[in-house]
Amino acid sequence: QVQLVESGGGLVQAGGSLRLSCVASGRTFSMYAMGWFRQAPGKEREFVSTINWSGGGTRYAESVKGRFTISRDNAKNTVYLQMNSLKPDDTAVYYCAAGPYSNYYNYWGQGTQVTVSS
Question: Which residue, 3, 58, 101, 108, is most buried by CB atoms nearer than 10 A?
Fold first, then answer.
């Protein structure tokens, strides 16, 4: 069982930056692929980024490529999402997820709100 707790969300002006963190419980964190997803009001949850167990493989949604960076620190059981050049369209609840593969997640956090004002 893995429990995920996100933090780092908040209110920021367009063009600003935020760094989200997700801390995982359990000793097997390094075995999991980790992902970030987001859900804006009235929209379905969408993929943002994923990172493999070693941190050597990453993938991004086209909408965030070049602006967001995912990373992980297996010694701290933590995955990060550095978000730069934020836009109002990035406003959403951001969720951290863990799973055996980068396209399959079976553990989810509660989410952290990111609001970008214009």
Answer: 108
